[in-house]
Amino acid sequence: MRKYFDTRRRLTLSWIALAVLSIITVSAGELELRLLAGAIVLIAGFCKAWIIIDQFMELRQVKLRWRLLMLGWPLVMALCIGIGMINRLPTD
Amino acid sequence: MRHNSTTQPLPGDLAMWFFILAELAVFGLMIMGFAVAEALQADSFRKSRDLLDTSTGLTLTLSLLTSGFLAALAVDRARHQQQKISAALLASAMVSAWVYVYIKLTEYNHLAEQGLDIEYDRFFTLYWIVSVFHFLHVLLGIVILAFMAVRCWYHSYSSDRLHNLESGVLYWHMVDLVWVMLFPLIYVLN
Predict the structure, then answer these.
(1) Taking CB atoms and an 8 Å cutoff, what residues of chain B touch A4?
(2) Residue A89 region by backbone torsions, left for phi larger than 0, else alpha for psi between -120 and 50, else beta
(3) How many angstroms away from the CA of B73 is the closest CA of chain A?
(4) Predicted confidence band at B5 (pLDDT cuts at 50, 70, 90)?
């Protein structure tokens, strides 16, 4: 019974963290410091992905290679978006 | 859910995990294409992104995350043989997903009325391709949630068949996972 309530509490805390990180993402997007704002947005995005993978998809305690494989996706995406952001060329 | 330090087996079917990896690869290529195109046409992308409403994007995000949370709770209840409650949670997850669908369709309609269609510029070409592709996944996810809710209601997920429920919910979390990376790219990073 205790395990059941622990699970429900853990999932609820994860959901609250995801909501807070989403609000941080939007708030950071309005900062004047563009590079800092971009970094905050991408780190928040990766943290949200991490929570979904570890808590909702339940990869916290599976074999490390599966966890790394799944965590690698948001990491690569965040890096690609970040590199693209740094290299934005003012053309128009 | 387990809190010990031993390695646990993958939830769901192995085939679903390969399917998820394939889907993530496709979405990954789209996101990289978006990022490269933006690097080449930064000003144009910035002006076009300003035409999207960030608060709409936030509402879409919260509705999908809430739906994923309810689906995760449903799996937990099913593991405790509370399948009627699990069915109710899956139905609630569907309602939250329908909020996403309604808001997204309203946004599509609004953009189309303003002439911001797929041919407007490169940002909107990529916006329509990526977001509609994701939207189709949401619709498929709702069908899967409905199917699983009905099966839960009739107690079809015995303890040896729970992996079917886990696989369906994993697909739904994959849709969530993709969205949390699409959201900043499409709506926020200006």
Answers:
(1) 76, 80
(2) beta
(3) 7
(4) low
